[in-house]
Design brief:
Blueprint: E1 3-8, E2 11-16, H1 17-41, H2 47-56, H3 63-74, H4 77-83, H5 85-88, H6 93-101, H7 105-116, H8 122-146, H9 160-168, H10 170-173, H11 180-195, H12 202-222
Antiparallel strand pairs: 1-2
Helix pairs in contact: 1-8, 1-9, 2-3, 7-8, 11-12
Length: 226
């Protein structure tokens, strides 16, 4: 049987085929929402970054501005990796680097929900991520081959599927009223920055930093004194 279990204090970290299969099943529902996303904007395995780049795109192409925007958007991967450290720090070699290579927002949210439920099987993360990667690659090919045959007008309802898929990842990571403050701060700051006339990626970056700071301050107040 392909699997790994390691002692981590009083908790165990695993990497098993059973976890991988559970990750695949958990990701299947999300792939339905990601299908039109990859079909319309799929170029590489980075849908959110592509949406930001397309929002800025014009003639002549703003290469430097788009590159900076994509870099800022992808900085979110750093805190995501840190949040998964209790699991990933116990992995080595291809298990570690393979897990990081296919990490995406949706798989991250599903894995966080697993960790909060006390399950630490990194195979779950890989199963969920690979399912989304496979779906994305297929949709990219279909979109590339048949893109000229289907012309959707701006504002078509199918474009909301990508937004809905991103919004759905909030459900498994919501912990109740304790999350209300940082989430509200993040949303309010992002809207304020957008209202001030600053385009992508600054509303996302400002909202993420403000929400993270609010969450950290909350945790410090709630933590017992040393």
């Amino acid at each position: 049987m392909w699997g790994l279990q390691q002692q981590a204090g009083d908790r165990r970290v695993a990497f098993t085929t059973a976890g991988l299969r559970r990750g695949v099943r958990a990701a299947l529902g999300l792939t339905i929402g990601l299908m039109p996303f990859g079909l319309v904007v799929g170029l590489v395995f980075a849908g959110t970054a592509q949406l930001v780049a397309l929002e800025l795109w014009k003639d002549p192409a703003p290469i430097l501005a788009a590159t900076l925007a994509v870099l800022v958007i992808n900085l979110r991967m750093a805190p995501m990796g840190a949040a998964l450290a209790p699991v990933l720090d116990r992995l080595h070699g291809i298990r570690l680097w393979g897990s990081l290579a296919v990490l995406v927002d949706n798989a991250f949210a599903l894995m966080i929900a697993e960790m909060r439920a006390g399950r630490r099987d990194a195979g779950f993360l890989v199963g969920a991520s690979l399912t989304m990667w496979g779906n994305w690659m297929v949709m990219c090919v279909v979109g590339h081959v048949f893109g000229a045959a289907v012309r959707l007008p701006p504002g078509h309802p199918v474009f909301f599927a990508s937004v809905a898929a991103l919004m759905s990842i909030l459900v498994p990571i919501w912990r109740g009223r304790s999350d209300l403050l940082p989430w509200t701060v993040a949303g309010a700051v992002a809207l304020a920055v957008h209202g001030a006339g600053l385009g992508a990626p600054w509303p996302v970056l400002a909202g993420a930093l403000a929400g993270s700071a609010a969450g950290a301050a909350r945790d410090l107040r709630q933590s017992p004194a040393a």
